[in-house]
């Protein structure tokens, strides 16, 4: 039985470090793994722009914040700073949270690189640390030289001028040798060198919409010369986030208060090394004043709070053994600000002689917070939590919404004054040593830009409000775009999963059997549909129902699955064997036609010799497979002929296989020359042989054998047949009907007929609520007077949206000319396809042209009347 956990058991913390997977723990708080080492020995985590590196140290994992080298440690430190929804936890709370984490179950086992063999390492020669330092120094020199060249100078001022910096500022003694032009090939950037005590440390490059800091440790600062020249005593140091802000501050402020000033910039978020370097500059220059000129936003306020804690008046040197060191002033109060996406926190540590003194100091702070909270209309905004209290130390954490960071800055300024009062008298510095100078707008360069436009301070303040509203709108837009992107990715994954499931369902034996039955039904319908749907020629060529291959492809698109049989392109087959009618018919009419063709007596209009039925003729179809060990071509041809609806019958397939494994099959086709559809049968036989002899690969291995006398007799019968391949007169296809009277004919003509069109649109997938090309086409179609059905859409894996809609119109509509023009325009539009019967297309164009001519005549008459 395990012994109960002691509340302050020190071994428990070691167990947390050893047993908890830091990557998994961080992932549960919202961090994502974006990169990792090949052997899993390190991981990069990201959240809200913050990057952490997690690696292994001895028997546990540790992390390091890339942007803040003070933020590092084990899972204990991670939970302290980021636990409690980002507000931080005290040690007791850390213990409780990590216990609960372990109780949830073991973390995933991660593979790390094997530990090196110590015995082998001990046998290797010891490396030269000086050599490694020299290699790093050479790398730094190479990178900086690539930017600044052998001789750095400022040759291009266009970027600075574009930011409102004038030549007077650029040529000031303060900035000579502190700004350069970096040129690589034809690209020119403005370069700002960063220095530390060893010299050049890095270089920041800037241009319009471009910013780059060399991949070197961020342990240097951009620093100007004193404004009165080198080696002059400095009265003031101005610290800002960027060199451009320093130049802007100088141009706006220096003439009004011309103290000898040194400018420092950190190129963004200051690191611990940069803060220490700024303090050493203060120690050397001994200024009377430090001005914090950071941005007027939550980030700038956070920097100012930490500077007020870290920066002090120049420290004296004191002897230590055989050397000297800076003497640090006592720190009765310390604070440090951190922030996440939504909140800013301030950790305050009081160091005192007794618990009573600590309680009094804490009470002074909490009273101030209560007073500030009491002035707010929406109730308390600053949350206060005592995290730790001992005889010698009390630690508190204050937290506000990120938008209210200014309240914590007020607290920091009071802590600064309180610290000076609590220090021994000989250590106290002037309370005004550090002051904050905020721009009116977000940053000093924006102030300079608006001032150059002639705006007053009040106008700049109003513009700053508009700027912030615009930035908030842009942030909200980015947030919505990110959320939409996540929803789109989820929908894509869902569609892919559904497609995978559908593929699995399609591969079941039941689904395959159903497809085979569907293919069989489709093959049976192919030629019958071709009989009903073929249009008439407009170009005068006989036996061809389509004016172009495009029309044939559109019309036969619905039969695309039949190509899987490997027989023949359907558009070729239908062009060779066109149907007897020029419009679509329903199934009842098709059956009537078939019965008529098979069994009816010859039509009265056809003058054929009377007497006994004609002799039955035989044509033998010979079909060879195009590859060894394959079969089915002959059966597929036979099935198409049997289901064509024409008056012919086929025998069973006979086949043999030769020495090469090629199957050679044949079957007989029976027909009679006295049938009304003999002309179509003649076209089938003649055209099939012609294409095979012409070398058409789809007809490879196909031939029809018959006697020359039978072919000649069929030719003669075909010329007098009732049903011709190019007929447009329906009266010859079915039983003869009484001719309508003139009045009935006029009424029928006036009634018109309804036509159907299918429109397909392919376009890049649209976002939710976005109007795509398909919606625009539908709007144009309905605007012309036609009716458009609902849009049916699918999106493929390449992100292409395939849409389809059904359109209908009547030939007696007064808007037919406009409808016809709209359909033609859609057909010519990239990504759009209009699928309609060729005879319907010709009819609507003819009627539409007639309407246009009539309208033009009416307009002419109106004008000349």
TrEMBL record:
This is Toprim-like. Residues 468-521, 726-745, 837-849 have a biased composition (Basic and acidic residues). Pfam families: Toprim_2 (PF13155). The lineage of its organism: Bacteria, Pseudomonadati, Bacteroidota, Cytophagia, Cytophagales. It comes from the Bacteria. Residues 467-522, 718-757, 829-865 are annotated as: Disordered.
